[in-house]
Write a structure and sequence with these properties.
- This protein has helices spanning about 20-25, 30-35, 55-65, 70-95, 100-125, 130-145, 150-165, 190-195, 215-230, 230-240, 250-275, 295-305, 335-350, 380-390, 415-430, 475-485, 490-495; strands at about 15, 50, 170-175, 175-180, 285-295, 310-315, 320-325, 355-360, 365-370, 400-405, 435-440, 450-460, 465-470.
- It has about 500 residues and is an alpha/beta fold.
- It has three domains: about 15-165 and about 245-260, no CATH class; about 170-230, no CATH class; about 280-495, 3-Layer(aba) Sandwich (Rossmann fold).
- The longest helix has 29 residues, at about 100-125.
């Protein structure tokens, strides 16, 4: 069986593809921009699919908990740095001028490969990871580097590299002739160049360890050095012929998958430095809950502006299935809905979540439906577009999913929007889905069993607090009474300002 850090059965490509609309609806595309910043160009593709099953979610979550520890993170991060160095050295082979120079760079690639693997093996053993995934990888790695072929490769590469690094030569110039001999001298190459060639204001670039490019003078040094050390270069040639291809296919897969965890741990650490807590969620099936949950994308933006976000609580338990969230515009309703969707996405991916404490049961999928502008291309009108996008969410394959709906049926008459909204809620609840429905239609809060009403709160002066709490929506009659009480009817205002 192939080895993978993303799937316990070794096949990481059979996950559930996450639609790009889910990432953009929940502003997770902005989060991923920050997570992937400074990492490999193709790391973003690792976040394009959910694990295929509950077991794979738990598998990733356990690995991520290991990688969050300083010892495991350091071991894997240092190994990843070694991979980048290897790739850099390998690129120099193509650009090198001389065959002998290509062989030296190939030796450096192999030496970096074996030394970084041996270091990773030692550091993982010392860190003693607890997850099945990293324990399996550590066992595989120990077995791989103890194999006779690898041990001989390591011995040969280390011996040749040490021999090359131990060479020291003295360059002299006398009467138009350069000579090269073993040893060291007090003079510096830069001073040597400056005295002989004032226009050559540069440092010496060792063509074997610094760069694949060199000057005519350095090219001559290489030729002199090669002729003087024929025995070493014969051994180097034999080494290159004996080990034309050494990298292991399983390790190549693991190297790419490591970044899945490293990038997000690095991101989490950066958020914590800015005062935003993140935690590993538990995964019992009795409730969905979170304390001090916040919108991660908003936190990224606010941290750059020196502002804070308003956290909120979350609780769905027992027979409760769907939140219906109402309240004033700009009161934080959509932000709260996004934070719930982000909580589910992060938990399904096996990552920590933006809260002080959280419990997230298993959901088969995560679906979103956010109101968008009417498409002139479709020619169907906004309502038909919304129904078309809603159709796959109502499909049987989405049973047990978490659904985030934001302002559905906004172009329909209120009576029709309420009727259709209630049918959607009842259908989703019958499919054992859970989720949140953000709406301006307070009547949806009375849909029936399984629906929990939330409101975006305001203070005594009617200012938004961005806090979300359980409460039935304020009905029209109550609003009318408040308008009359505070003399805000049209006639009262007209009388006061006349």
């Amino acid at each position: 069986m192939a080895l993978s850090l993303l799937s316990q059965n070794g096949i990481s490509e059979n996950g559930i593809t996450v639609p790009e609309s889910v990432l953009t609806d929940l502003n997770l595309d902005q989060v991923l921009d920050k997570v992937c910043e400074g990492w490999d160009e193709d790391v973003r593709t690792l976040y394009s699919s959910f694990p295929a099953c509950r077991e794979d979610e738990e598998y990733r979550r356990a690995i991520y908990e290991d990688v969050r520890s300083d010892s495991v993170y350091s071991a894997m991060f240092n190994y990843h740095a070694g991979i980048k160095s290897r790739l850099e050295y390998a690129s120099k082979i193509e650009n090198a001028y001389e065959l002998v120079q290509k062989r030296v760079w190939f030796l450096r690639v192999i030496y970096t490969y074996v030394s970084s693997l041996e270091t990773l093996d030692a550091e993982l053993k010392k860190a003693a990871p607890k997850s099945e995934g990293l324990k399996a990888f550590s066992s595989f790695l120990s077995k791989y580097i103890s194999d006779g072929y690898f041990k001989k490769l390591s011995l040969d590469a280390t011996s040749l590299w040490k021999e090359l690094c131990d060479f020291h030569v003295v360059l002299t110039y006398d009467r138009g002739q350069f000579t090269l001999k073993d040893g060291t001298a007090p003079g510096a190459y830069e001073k040597f160049l400056k005295e002989l060639f004032p226009d050559q204001n540069r440092a010496f670039d060792n063509p074997f360890t610094d760069t694949e490019y060199y000057s005519d003078l350095e090219a001559e040094i290489v030729r002199l050095f090669t002729r003087k050390n024929k025995e070493f270069f014969k051994k180097l040639e034999a080494f290159c012929n004996e080990y034309p291809e050494v990298e292991n296919r399983d390790l190549t897969v693991i190297e790419k998958e490591m970044v899945y965890y490293l990038a997000f741990v690095s991101f989490e650490r950066n958020m914590k430095r800015q005062g935003y807590e993140m935690c590993m969620p538990s995964a019992s099936d009795d409730k969905l809950s979170a304390e001090n949950l916040y919108d991660l994308a908003l936190a990224i933006t606010n941290s750059e502006l020196g502002k804070k976000v308003v956290p909120n609580a979350l609780m769905l338990s027992g027979d409760e299935s769907f939140f219906v969230l109402t309240g004033p515009n700009q009161g934080g309703k959509t932000t709260y809905g996004r934070s719930l969707g982000q909580l589910i996405w992060l938990s399904k991916m096996g990552f920590s979540v933006p809260a002080d404490r959280a419990n997230v049961p298993y959901f088969t999928d995560l679906c979103t439906h956010f109101s968008v502008e009417e498409s002139a291309d479709s020619g169907r009108g906004k309502l038909m577009d919304e129904l078309e996008r809603l159709k796959p969410i109502m499909d049987e394959s989405k049973d047990g999913a978490f659904i985030v709906i934001n302002e559905l049926f906004t172009t329909a008459a209120n009576f029709d929007a309420i009727e259709m909204g209630q049918r959607v809620l009842r259908k989703l609840i019958s499919k054992k889905c859970k989720g949140i429905y953000v709406t301006h239609l307070g009547e949806l809060a009375g849909t029936g069993e399984g629906v929990v009403s939330l409101i975006a709160d305001v203070d005594e002066n009617n200012n938004q607090t961005f806090e979300i709490r359980r409460s039935m929506p304020v009905d029209v009659n109550t609003v009318n009474r408040l308008v009359v009480k505070y003399r805000l009817t049209y006639d009262q205002l007209k009388e006061r300002f006349s």
